[in-house]
């Protein structure tokens, strides 16, 4: 498993800052990061004339992480309110859409940071208790982070619920016949996609286009929907929570959203996964082969 430090060594820091790098969420990395710092701070002064300062310094170390976790948690709450407000004012305007996407990106990053700092603060609190034999009481906030959180189960559940809340809010804004599209990321020719979607719209004038926003066929379909003023519902993969499984989880969310059929443009494992699951549920799937690639 490549850690963020391995990635930095391989690719260097990004020009936009460390927000573009993965946020370490595994408990081993959190424990090592806190444990090494704690040992460097406390272990060095044990058995010296500064030994009497172990308790206040250890408490201050845990409190520093706790305060930052609380601050990030509050920032995430503010961003959540901003997202709800932006959802309410969406009218198809591209600027408003970009603002919503940026707010979602900021929320995902801030929420992950808050959770990471909570985990680190809890690790530091436990180190304080082992070292001093006293119960750690934070100066601000509560010790809401439980060790069970470090398994990732609660993290994934909260992310899933948050994504579901956003998706529900989007779905509740539109009514009609939900048709899902998926396809190859390398699909470049818009002609077959526009013709097939025009035919689908003729059969279902109240059509609502559902997709994951992936490059290639799905983005071409999204462009068609904007041009035809067809409502869209975006099922964006929840990468921070589900990693490589995120697009497959997004497929499952689409299937739960009362879609009536699927149009698959070409192959691709993720698109095929949606098509096969849809057929298993008795839904109609239209498979449109990819244009043949011309040599030269």
What does this structure look like?
The protein has 296 residues and is an alpha/beta fold. It is 58% helix and 8% strand. The chain is built from 10 helices and 5 strands; from the N terminus they run H-H-H-H-H-E-H-E-H-E-H-H-E-H-E. It has helices at residues 4-11, 27-45, 54-88, 94-132, 153-171, 190-203, 217-228, 239-242, 246-255, 269-280, and strands at 177-183, 207-211, 232-234, 261-265, 284-288. A 5-stranded parallel sheet has the order 3-2-1-4-5, sandwiched between helices. Helix 6 (190-203) links the parallel strand 1 (177-183) and strand 2 (207-211). It is elongated.
Helical residues, percent:
55-70%
Q: Tell how many strands the DSSP assignment holds.
A: 5
Which structural class is indicated by helix and strand composition? alpha/beta
Spans of 5+ residues with little confidence (pLDDT < 50)? Answer: 1-17, 145-156
Give the distance, in angstroms, between the N- and C-terminal Cα atoms: 40 Å
What's the total helix number? 10
Computed over alpha carbons, the radius of gyration is 24 Å
Kindly estimate the percentage of residues that lie in beta strands according to DSSP.
5-15%
Helices and strands, in order, run as HHHHHEHEHEHHEHE
Main sheet attributes: strand count, strand direction, barrel closure: 5 strands, parallel
Overall pLDDT level: 78
Order of strands, widest sheet: 3-2-1-4-5
What is the general shape?
elongated
């Amino acid at each position: 498993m490549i850690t963020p430090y391995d990635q930095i060594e391989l690719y260097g820091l990004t020009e936009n800052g460390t927000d573009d790098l993965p946020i370490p969420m595994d408990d081993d990395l959190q424990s090592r990061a806190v444990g090494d710092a704690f040992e460097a701070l406390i272990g060095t002064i044990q058995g010296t004339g500064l030994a009497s300062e172990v308790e206040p310094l250890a408490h201050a170390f845990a409190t520093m992480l706790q305060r930052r976790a609380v601050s990030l948690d509050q920032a995430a709450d503010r961003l959540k309110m901003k997202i709800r407000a932006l959802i309410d004012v969406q009218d198809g305007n591209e600027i408003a859409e970009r603002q919503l996407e940026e707010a979602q990106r900021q929320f995902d990053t801030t929420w992950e940071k808050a959770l990471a700092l909570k985990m680190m603060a809890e690790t530091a609190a436990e180190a304080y208790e082992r070292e001093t034999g006293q119960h750690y009481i934070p100066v601000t906030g509560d010790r809401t982070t439980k060790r069970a959180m470090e398994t990732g189960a609660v993290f994934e559940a909260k992310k899933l619920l948050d994504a579901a809340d956003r998706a529900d809010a989007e779905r509740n804004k539109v009514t009609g016949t939900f048709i899902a599209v998926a396809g190859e990321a390398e699909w470049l020719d818009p002609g077959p996609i526009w013709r097939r979607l025009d035919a689908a719209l003729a059969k279902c004038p109240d059509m609502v286009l559902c997709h994951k926003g992936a490059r290639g066929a799905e983005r071409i379909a999204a462009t068609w929907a904007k041009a035809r003023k067809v409502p869209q519902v975006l099922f964006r993969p929840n990468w921070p929570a589900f990693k490589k499984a995120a697009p497959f989880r997004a497929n499952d969310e689409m299937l739960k959203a009362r879609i009536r059929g699927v149009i698959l443009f070409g192959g691709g494992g993720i698109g095929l996964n949606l098509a096969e699951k849809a057929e298993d549920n008795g839904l109609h799937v239209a498979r449109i082969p990819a244009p043949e690639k011309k040599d030269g």
